[in-house]
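Thread: quick sanity check before group meeting

JM: Hey all, I'm pulling together slides for Thursday and realized we never actually wrote out the predicted structure for the chain we discussed last week. Dropping the sequence here so it's in one place. If anyone has concerns about the input, flag it before I start.
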Amino acid sequence: MPCFAHFGTAPNPRRTPVILFQMKLSNAFRLLVTLLLACLLQFSCEEHAGERNDEIIQVESDDEEMNEAIDTARETLDQFLEKRSGSKDEFFGLLKVYFEDEGDSEENGEHMWVSLISEENGNFTGTLLSSPGWLKSVKQGDEVGFGRSDITDWLYTEDGRAVGAYTVQLLRSRMTEEERADHDSSYPFSFE
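JM (edit): ok, ran it. Output follows.
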């Protein structure tokens, strides 16, 4: 039986009633915004219980193209971090992070989107935006900690276009033209 890893496409802001963005903020204000966001996400999850906000796409763990996309995202992560730290205006950026429940094998983990709150000496903190499909140790809206090696993709928007999103671009390339158009129509930015 093949082993699978979980990859979700970018969170769909049109399927979630919360508009997510990130600006340079003081730590206290960031904490307040994060708590409000977590409350809104929790309310949204309760309101839409039974609905899935994330599309789950399973990919074999030995998928060479996907592993290359992850490697590219890791090699270029500094581009994301530099853009975020140098942004004087509103910054919308996400990290895809690998999570697994303690004691599970690597093939049972999930790659999910996180909004970055802070980064210090290679230690990251963020808010989990994706809804886990099967993991029990985290839930949508949780503040999560992770290291650089846990990051498997990143994206930010610039001039209405997604930058990065290496795993998403690969998944899009495997879609039919109709599937890709449907996927892309759900986002307020372009993947082209």
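AS: nice. The beta strands are 4-8, 56-60, 93-99, 110-120, 123-128, 143-147, 151-158, 161-164. The first strand starts at residue 4 and ends at 8.
JM: adding both to the slides.
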